[in-house]
Amino acid sequence: MKINKLSDFLTQMPKGLEGINTKARYLYLELGKRSFYDREYEHMMFGEEDIFSIYTNKMFTNPNMIICTTLEKQYKELLDKLGIENKLVNDKLGHTFLIYKDEEGMEHATDLTRDLKNIQFNCSTSYFAVRTIPSEILRKIDLGLGYITETKGYSNDYWDILRKKVKSSNLPIQTKFELILNGLQEFGDLTKLGETELLAMYEKFVRYCSNNQYRAIFSSRKVTRKSRRI
């Protein structure tokens, strides 16, 4: 679907979605597909009031270049328009996340910024109601939303194939590392990830497939490229 402004997420929401958790999950996934951490912010003078104000109050655009405060405010606005009770929370480091409340009054913590890499690579999420919604229930919701299907699960459902292959081989460590790096593209579309999200996904993939045996640090240079609207 084409998204040009924040309200499009609501007008194009599939009819018949039932329950707050399903609606909150739908918006979480769809907003996450189009939002990318803005690395330009890291090059600015952090602490400058005017710059911080601009970044934390940016309107939605597609692609949506954001920082955590911007993104969570947008997610909150969408939930507010659906009448879903929610609140923004800041941790001790200043990171912003969101908690919403379902029909039963149960609170669910979410952190869309930290889940962007997972959503863009069709992985299971790590920060959506992790302690309050069982994984099997969340999988059922994602099936209904079409995020996964009966024949194609989460991307990370299949990572164990490569991890077992690497673990059982007698190849040199460097060769194993190269095998893992080259293997990520076999599990999803890397072009859907933003720069920050791509690096974070590589780190996650390397840690998993190597059983945390390799300590890899990924960094990037500032690049210019055309962005794609979806």
Output the keywords.
230 residues, mainly alpha, 3-stranded antiparallel β-sheet, two-stranded parallel sheet, 43% helix, globular, disordered C terminus
Report on this model:
This protein is mainly α. It is built from 10 helices and 5 strands. The strands form 2 sheets. Strands 3-4-5 form a 3-stranded antiparallel β-sheet, with helices on one face. Helix 6 (112-120) crosses helix 10 (195-209). It is globular, with a radius of gyration of 19 Å. The model is unreliable at 223-228 (pLDDT under 50).
Q: Tell me the strand percentage band.
A: 5-15%
How far apart, in Å, are the first and last alpha carbons? 7 Å
Name the shape in a single word.
globular
- Give the strand line-up of the largest sheet: 3-4-5
Mean pLDDT: 90
Order of helices and strands: HHEHHEHEEEHHHHH
Q: Give me the secondary-structure category.
A: mainly alpha
- What is the helix content? 40-55%
Write the layout of secondary structure elements.
Layout: H1 8-11, H2 20-33, E1 35-37, H3 40-43, H4 49-56, E2 64-66, H5 68-81, E3 86-90, E4 96-101, E5 107-110, H6 112-120, H7 135-145, H8 159-168, H9 173-183, H10 195-209
Question: Summarize this, please?
Answer:
This protein is mainly alpha-helical and 230 residues long.
